[in-house]
Amino acid sequence: MPTQTDVLIIGGGLAGLTAALHLQKTGIAVILIEKDTYPHHKVCGEYVSNEILPYLQWLDADPAILRPSIITRLQFSTIQGNSIFTRLPLGGFGVSRYQLDNFLYEKFIAKGGLVIQDTVNHVIFGKESFTVSTKNKQQFIVRQVIGAYGKRSSLDLKLKRTFIQQKSPFLAVKAHYTGEFQNDLIALHNFKGGYCGVSKVEDQKINICYLADYNTFKTHKNIGIYQEKVLYQNKHLKDIFERCTPLFETPLTISQLSFGARKTVTDHILMIGDTAALIHPLCGNGMAMAIHSAQICATLLTAFFKGDISSRTELEKRYIISWNQNFKSRLRMGSTLSAILSKEYLAEKLISGMVNIPFVLPMLIKKTHGHLLTVQE
């Protein structure tokens, strides 16, 4: 017999776990399916804007218990090594996905939540409900499905999402290190074909995560040689790598990254987090956006189940509108900045302009970040 529930969430990353906690708090029956066990590392910049702190506190999931680094300043540099510093308007914190995802997972489980380790194979909508089947031959009948399975999945192929057919030239690489780096700083360093983020997470570990042009990367034998030949052209990156010791046996990598917005509703599935859109890492705001998108989705779903939203059509319409209002311009700015930084000449011009006109960089930061996210009881 199929298992029945109100909501089934596919994917247990930041967005999926946050949505699960929110729905659980409002009394909606929810099951989460995640293919991996906890805890596990993920390719991620691991910087979180403080804009989502009030919301996490409302969920009884204050990350302060994880002792994250407190980040208040940003450094930005070009290939030539020219750099500029500024204070972050809201500030943020650094915490690993290894710790944060597991923290949210344990919160959900402790409050009676159900997480099933499995992989969703098919989602079929009909007669106002979804039938979901998994690799381990489990079946679920649910009123609503939320897609929170990350950057790309075989499920995207089955749902015929257009972005999955498009090749992307980007490769992301991430690892943790020990060494010297300022606790309150997040640094974004440009190099030919990409950019690299550096910041502290919990326990004084340094997270280094960079996005590279795959065509440039594949001309080198391995990651180490690529870093020495390409990233080291930026003197700041050369100095950081030479002063740090890797904690991972090998860095984590992920390829075929497709940035920008995707359809936020596909076959009546509400998409959140990276499943709905992937913002360029240089914006340093993907984790906060994932959590914020979960809040939007869970809030509207709660209203739908209470009868305050009269139909599925209205639910989907309101979700798309709210998602666009909060994220569309931020994604557009991320794409624009990425296009500029991919051209060495333009990147140097941008830095020069920001040095001469200091308010430009804080203005760009505000364009890629949101406001403090509060929740009314």
Largest β sheet strand count, sense and barrel closure:
9 strands, mixed
Instruction: Estimate the mean pLDDT confidence.
Output: 90
Please indicate the percent range of residues in DSSP E strands (runs of 2 or more).
25-35%
Structural class per helix/strand content?
alpha+beta
In short:
With 377 residues, this protein is α+β, with helices and mostly antiparallel strands.
Give a verbal description of the structure:
By secondary structure, the protein is an alpha+beta fold. It has a single domain, classed as FAD/NAD(P)-binding domain (3-Layer(bba) Sandwich), CATH 3.50.50. It has 11 helices and 19 strands. The mean pLDDT is 90.
Topology:
Blueprint: E1 3-10, H1 14-25, E2 30-34, E3 47-49, H2 53-58, E4 69-77, E5 83-94, H3 97-110, E6 114-117, E7 120-126, E8 129-134, E9 139-147, H4 154-158, E10 170-178, E11 185-191, E12 194-200, E13 206-213, H5 214-217, H6 223-229, H7 235-243, E14 245-246, E15 252-255, E16 260-261, E17 265-266, E18 269-271, E19 277-278, H8 286-306, H9 312-341, H10 344-356, H11 360-368
Helix pairs in contact: 1-3, 1-8, 8-9
